Amino acid sequence: MAIFEIPSYVSRSLADALTLFLPVECAGCGLHDVALCQQCRDALHPHPIFQETLGGLRVCSGLAFSGVSADVIRAVKEEGKTSTLAAALAPALRRAVEEVCALSGDLPITSLIVVPIPTSRAAMRRRGFRVVEVIAKRAGLSSQRLLWSTRTTADQRDLGRHERQRNVTDSMRARSFAAARVLLIDDVVTSGATLDEAARAIRAAGGIPVGAATVAATPRWADAEHTKTLGR
């Protein structure tokens, strides 16, 4: 029996339409009759986190992945609640992008190619959309899918730092960049291993990764054992 993949815009539309008929509650605190209450919106105000991966890539995250921000991001990723919540997360990603540009010598965003970290096939089948691309669009960022996975990798969530590095090594390829400057974007950074692999693939394709911007960073990311803090 043939299996057809539902277009991402159809999946998002269906998920958003269902919210019209199902009980609505705040993704951050559970308050009834509102997708995101004002208090939780305020909790998503950007508080940039600056780090550097073990591979030397500069990274800025707009928020810490904890409390309200973690709940809201999970609601987008696992429940498909994109219409309101993606817009609420957009300022965090936009701020992170601006900070990376500033760290790179005040480069204008228009001088960079914004490239999202590729979504795994399993996640794409499950969600029907690419999380960071939806948020980036709400943030007014134009991104290009110039990076792709070449093999299936294990779920990173239960892996340690070195296991994550081994898991993603040589797992990505990129189109030729011809010395173009590239800014990577993703929804959440945990150890930085995936970002380092993406940067490696971009360099191999002739590009220059200037840094990465993410919506949020997990507590593990702020652990000095995993990363180096940028002097800022």
Automatic annotation (TrEMBL):
Coiled-coil ranges from the UniProt annotation: none
Pfam families reported in the protein's UniProt record: Pribosyltran
Example of a GO MF term: glycosyltransferase activity
InterPro entries in alphabetical order: ComF/GntX_DNA_util-trans (IPR051910), PRTase-like (IPR029057), PRTase_dom (IPR000836)
Signal sequence interval, chain numbering: none
SUPFAM superfamilies: PRTase-like (SSF53271)
Keywords linked to the UniProt accession: Glycosyltransferase, Transferase
Residue stretches making up the Phosphoribosyltransferase domain: 155-219
Gene3D superfamilies: 3.40.50.2020
Family under the similarity heading: Belongs to the ComF/GntX family.
Name of the featured protein: Putative amidophosphoribosyltransferase
Organism name: Microbacterium halimionae
